Amino acid sequence: MASQAPANNPPPNVSDPFAPLQQLVSRIDSESRAKEVIDRARNLNAEEQQLLVDVLSTTLNKSKILSQRHARAWFALIKIASSAHVFARDRTIRSEYIATGGDASACIKVVRQIQDDTSVICHEKLVEWVHLSHPNILPLYSVFLESEDRPSFVSPSTSTVKICDHARNLKSDRRLPLILDVVDGLCHLHQLNIIHGGLGPETVLVSVEGRALITDLDVTSKEEDSSVLSIRYSAPELSLEDSRPTKATDIWAFGCLGHEVLSGKVPFCQCSSDIKANSAIARGDKPARPGQDRRGGGAINDTTWDLLMMCWEYAAVDRPTSLKFQEMLSHIRIEDVRPEPKPESIIEPEAAKSSVIDVELAKAILSQVLGSNQATSQQVPKRLRDTLFRLVRDSEALSAAQVAAKKLDRDDTQTLVDLIELVVKDLPYLPRSNLTGQLLEDIMESTYIFPQYYRASGVQYDPTRLVSEYPRAKLYEGRMLRVRICIVKPGYTGTTVRNLALWANMSHPNILPFHGVFHENLMESPQFCVVLPHLKNGTLEDYAPTLPQKSRMLLISDVASGLAYFQNIADWRGQGILTGSGVVISDGGRALILLFGMNYAFFQEKIHNSWNTYIYRFLCPSDSGSAEGLIWSFGCLSYQVLSRKFPFYQVPDEQVDEEVYFGDERLIRPDRADAEMDEMDDKAWELIVKCCAQEPEDRPDWSQIREMLANMEIEEDCRPPATPLPIPEVQVLRSRPELDIDRAEIALNQAEVLHGPLSELLENHTKDVAATIVELEHDDIQTIVNFLDQALKERLSISEERNRVLAILSRITSSTLIFPQRYELKGIKYDPHKFIAQGGYGTVYQGIDPSMCIKLMKQLNTGALTSWIKEVILWAHSSHPNVLPFLGVFLEGQINSPQPCLVSPFMKNGNMKDYAARLPQKSRLPLASS
Fold it and tell me: Strand, coil or helix: what is 111?
């Protein structure tokens, strides 16, 4: 019988039957993939389309944190539901539960009805609202009433109290939680690329528990006017013709709502009318602060006021996103004494249609619309791959590329690392010999800019739930998700950052997989945070003593398997020390090794004396960082697992460094079995002794170790198959962006030109470079001048490098009068009888061709022309409707004493001074503006 699952969360420690469906839905990881799913869904029959909508809706609503992948799956859900005219069954109410007036046990009222003239946009907005599920968004459900073919839409009759009316009855310190409610709801909308467009005091209600509920999500679709906000809530850009609401205008309106909720005063209370408020907004004024300068209203504290001020930045791009605002608010201590909210639906379970989902059938339909298992992720064009491989063709080129990459601006660097990640992602692993991978590692280590696919967007830690702390890091419980967050302290991030690419591309059942990283604390210095799974079995040193000794051999075999794999593809040096706290146990009972500088993440200093004292018990005295030193540490780890005693337990903590690491203390074979210690058989002791041999060459390699383990008495492995890691809820938060190919090509070209011959020119003094070049043959100078001009035109956007190239080019051209060939014009002549003006460096004539104007330069020493030549080159590279176009240059006169002539269009209206005098004063202002 096919497995079935109800559309709710399973009990703790019970496997979620929806996990396979979530994995499939997470493959909708790009806009192109979402469109493929939408197109293929049209070929399904009505029952299959209904099931697909049910699955997409349920998996999205089960997600505690949203990412770009969720937004793409959401886009597919809404388009499919709108096209098929269906709604998820758990978002559809049975008609008999609808209140028809008077007393209604179900507490439901009809709020919308579809009419014949309902627009497609309005219908799609309602479809969106129906499928939203968030504690701060008023729920909307679809219902087909008796004798009605078209759906109606209903909401729970929880409250009709509007937020500002409710806030007036609260003390000032009880109002801030309402603002946090609103930003949480708005953040949910924005992460799904939904714009409210009408956020204000009329569109936010308050529930009976005192929780803010955003409503009227179809408000913009009901109005033909693009602005449905009151004037005082409207961002300045909404006054422009053909403007539409955006996420940034929602943020402006949110700031205004915060102002009114917290102070009781409308925003721009300094303006006596809406017309004056509109003028103030257009001028770039911000709302006046209530409670100051004899203005009434409740006072707003400094921290909150500073946050609200950010919402009213005149330029939309300068306003914070809802996600950033939510994070900044989370750092403010907000006391919330309200009762816990009731379940979001507030609808009796029997009121909704059946939501039992046939998981196997759902998997089949998802697989059908997703197509091939091969991801349709973006591929890097061959020309970009070729350019990248030229940059790192050998170790010398790699070094030059590393220097060049550091000169890119932050946006170009981000594009470059995203490009490289796309190139290396399909490798089975990333060997140290891969120069492309080394370039990525170097950029990350020097700039702390990571591929966007590595970022676990939206993951947060709970600062009130510290798990452990020691000098290198703090470990916290995650917020919303069952994860742990390791916040690495400054100075200890290098190993992890340097190895991110290696970690992200590594896959082995006994190595803890990469879950993601992020930066925390945007208001202060960012902190480097690593996402780790929350595993119920803890570390190896905690878990192993709970098992019979024969069962522990499986864990030792796990560790040997993982280390043998790692040593085969990478160098252990710099990875840290192998210890019992540096190996964790999966929920299925398998050992997972913590590598890449994370071996200390689960160390608990409260239990052990100190980290240094602890690792001395596992650290090889002679060669700790080598492959042979790792074998020693493995022997010590095996001793701990099999004996239940720390290696060198006979040595007190205060003497362990002197006696073990700097001395010649040996491991002692356990001679008894009691409550604290287990004996070992001869084969196990032989393994440990060989691994901990004094001379490195006497220690076995991994193939010999695994052979020795195979000959030991190990119980049959009855553990469940390894469960997929990383956990699906975290995996879907990591979204690979669709690469901007044009921008990637620009970034690569800049890196290439900085790393090629241009880098050699820029390494020397400008005067020395120019002086050397002017001694070359004419044709060679021409080639270099053309190259430098091309670099300015197409490849260089870094101001420092542009200025150096411009200085070199100006010096060369002023000394030689050799201009870039693209400037040169042939067959152009001026009419000496059509004098126009004289001044500056030359005389201006009209050309034989009357549409042209020629400036004949004075004959000066070539060195004196440098500043003028620089202006000419800048002119040639400028393009603006209010800058006179540069047409080109030609040389006039004798070969040994040529005069440069500049060509531009002839302007029949003359100069602005003469032209403006002929105009009325009011007509002159646009000229000054231009």
Answer: strand
- The rounded Cα 745 to chain-centroid distance in angstroms is 21
At 117-141, the pLDDT tens digits run: 555 566 788 899 999 999 999 999 8
Q: Which residues, 6 or more positions from 570, have their beta carbon under 8 angstroms from its beta carbon?
A: 431, 432, 502
Q: What is the CA radius of gyration of the chain?
A: 35
N-term to C-term CA, the chain: 76
Q: Is the fold of 163-330 the same as that of 824-915? A: no
* Cβ 552 vs Cβ 641: under 8 Å: yes
CA 100 – CA 363 distance, rounded (Å)? 40
Would you say 232 and 275 are in contact if contact means Cβ atoms under 8 Å apart?
no
Q: Which two tokens stand for residue 362?
A: 């759902």
For the question of whether the overall pTM of this predicted structure is more than 0.90, the answer is: no
pLDDT at 746: 78
Q: How many CB atoms lie within 10 A of CB 695?
A: 8
* Contact partners, residue 594, CB within 8 Å, separation at least 6: 512, 582, 583, 584, 601, 602
Q: Residue ranges per domain, the chain?
A: 4-156, 163-330, 392-453, 460-729, 756-821, 824-915
Given this model, what pLDDT does residue 137 score?
94
pLDDT more than 70, % of the chain: 85
- Enumerate residues 6+ apart whose C-beta is below 8 A from 439: 391, 392, 398, 401, 402, 405, 420
Question: What is residue 110's predicted lDDT score, i.e. its pLDDT?
Answer: 57
108 Rama sector, left if φ>0, alpha if ψ -120 to 50, beta otherwise: beta
pLDDT of residue 165: 93
SS (H, E, C) 221-279: HHCCCCCCCCHHHCCHHHHCCCCCCCHHHHHHHHHHHHHHHHHCCCCCCCCCCHHHHHH
Provide the CATH topology of domain 460-729: Transferase(Phosphotransferase); domain 1 (1.10.510)
In angstroms, the CA 27 to CA 366 distance is 10
Domain 824-915 has CATH 3.30.200.20: yes
State the pairing for strand pair 141-143/92-93: parallel
The closest alpha carbon to 487, from 474, 478, 499, belongs to: 474
- Both tokens of residue 382? 């061959």
Which DSSP helix (H) or strand (E) runs through 109?
Answer: strand 108-113
pLDDT at residue 648 above 90?
Answer: yes
**Amino acid (1-letter code) at residue 556:** I
Please give the pLDDT value at position 106: 46
CATH superfamily of 163-330: Transferase(Phosphotransferase) domain 1 (1.10.510.10)
Q: How far apart are CA 84 and CA 374, in angstroms?
A: 27
Contact predicate 365/51, CB 8 Å: yes
Give the model confidence (pLDDT) of 284-340 as tens digits: 889 999 888 777 788 899 999 999 999 999 999 999 999 889 888 877 878 888 887
> Is there a contact between 519 and 323 (Cβ–Cβ < 8 Å)?
no
pLDDT at 104 over 50: no
SS3 call for 462: strand
Q: Is the separation of the CB atoms in 55 and 49 below 8 Å?
A: no
Q: Tell me 12's DSSP state.
A: T
Sheet holding 92-93, edge to edge: 92-93, 141-143, 152-156, 108-113
| Nearest-angstrom CA–CA distance, 244 and 442 | 43
Q: Residue 840's pLDDT is what?
A: 67
For residue 836, give the 3-state DSSP assignment. strand
With beta carbons less than 8 A apart as the criterion, state whether 54 and 128 touch: no
Residues paired with 511 in a beta bridge? 593
Report d(CA 132, CA 514) in Å as an integer. 31
